[in-house]
Design brief:
globular; mainly alpha
Length: about 130
Amino acid sequence: MRAVLAPLAVAAAAAAGVIFVGLVDPNQPGHYPTCPFLMLTGLYCPGCGGLRAVHALAHGDLVAALGLNPFVVVMIPVAVLLWGRWAVFSWQGKRYAGKTIHPAYVWTFLGLMIVFWIVRNVPFGKFLAP
């Protein structure tokens, strides 16, 4: 049972974060700091709009969340899947190492994130801006 404490603690922290973002609206100025990358460059980073997307999801508005940051919305199920694997491994008493994720998946994720980052900042990709 002790091995399951770490995945449960991460789940509790994530749930607390989602509840906080669901209660404290990121659309209202003054609640959260401005994205440093956006503030310094005027360009959107891959995470820009992520808090507002989580807020929209916490209120059951998938369409608004996709409009704010589709990358974050698509990656949430992936994160839940990886957390689930970790929890199952821990429950079974096995050690979960990051090496169980094939490097091709990591490189694909990084490549998609960089493409998303670039496209949302060019004129034809304005639909991806938060």
